[in-house]
Amino acid sequence: MQFADVRRVVGGVPFITPEHALDLTNLILRERPEQILELGIAHGTATCYMAAALEEIGRGKVTAVDLKVAQFRPSAEEQLERCGLGRYTEVVRMQTGYTWFLHDQMRRQSPDGICRPNYDLCIIDGPKNWTIDGCAFFLVDKLLKPGGWIIFDDYAWTYAAADASRSATDGITHRNLSDEERTTPHIREIFELLVMQHPDYSNFVVYGRQDWAMAQKLTCSGEKTYTVRHRTEYGDLLSRAKGLIRRAVMRPRSAPAGIAAAGPKL
Ligand SMILES: C[S@@+](CC[C@H](N)C(=O)[O-])C[C@H]1O[C@@H](n2cnc3c(N)ncnc32)[C@H](O)[C@@H]1O
Questions:
Q1: Distance from the CA of 85 to the center of ligand 1, in angstroms?
Q2: Separation of CA 162 and ligand 1 centre (Å)
Q3: Thinking of the domain 3-232, which architecture would CATH place it in?
Q4: pLDDT class of 13 with cuts at 50, 70, 90
Q5: What is the average per-residue pLDDT within 102-122?
């Protein structure tokens, strides 16, 4: 199943944006990861895009982890079924969250007391919390192969920004946090203080709109690189076009009739 086909089935379902879904698809087609770990699934929309990319390269698995209590309709299982991509995925639901799943994986991967990494790509897209996701980074690091990639969603997200819509996020009550904890983006802190300062990570990419950040685990020590990737979004183009037309419409009398007529339709 190709990107456009998946988009037709899951395109209107949160949470991954079509732009990041395409970024993820291109990354998978380029890097050809065999084992992908998705921490935080919700409706499984990103899971479907990743499974479709694995189907295109003909092998691999997405292990997708969420909470037992998380109820989303449509569910990840339903969306995967609609796309016919179930065989490329394993959905795991945990009682307390993905840090204990990572514990179980480390235990499984350490038969002789040394943890053998088994993932090529990991996307962390859960509670956006310093304690949980900071811990998750170090646990994922034990399981990520050299050369593998780690992606964080919600780079600039804050509890303060979420105050308008709810009083608690994934078990964390906003008013129990200090002002600094409420207004500081936790994922940005994890990325800048834990990932970028870790001796084994480089090729840092932060997306210009500050919702995604990614890094690669080095195969050998080398120089670190940092890129900010900007994209001219469709929305930007549309608002610029609207602004131009509005200005043309406002210009008294001299504006050509055709432009003035187009104004109200926008
Ligand atoms: C933004 S959604 C994930 C969206 C999905 N990756 C996508 O792009 O389609 C965040 C998910 O993280 C889950 N979550 C939050 N805290 C978690 C935890 N500690 N362990 C596992 N999942 C968690 C929530 O239940 C929710 O489904």
A1: 20
A2: 15
A3: 3-Layer(aba) Sandwich (3.40)
A4: very high
A5: 97
pLDDT of 260 above 70: no
- Which residue minimizes the CA distance to atom 8 of ligand 1? 16
Q: Which atom of ligand 1 is nearest to the CA of 97?
A: 20
pLDDT (tens digit, 9 = 90+) per residue, 148-195?
A: 999 999 999 999 999 999 999 999 999 999 999 999 999 999 999 999
Please give the structure tokens belonging to residue 210: 């500050």
Interval 51-89: pLDDT, tens:
999 999 999 999 999 999 999 999 999 999 999 999 999
For the chain, the domains span 3-232, 233-266
Residue nearest to atom 14 of ligand 1 (CA): 126
Q: Is 7 left (phi over 0), alpha (psi -120 to 50) or beta?
A: alpha
Residue 125 Cβ contacting ligand 1 at under 6 Å: yes
Tokens representing residue 142 in the block: 């034990």
For ligand 1, is residue 133 a contact (CB within 6 Å)? no
Cβ pair 214, 152 in contact under 8 A: yes
Q: In angstroms, what is the span from residue 131 Cα to ligand 1's centroid?
A: 15
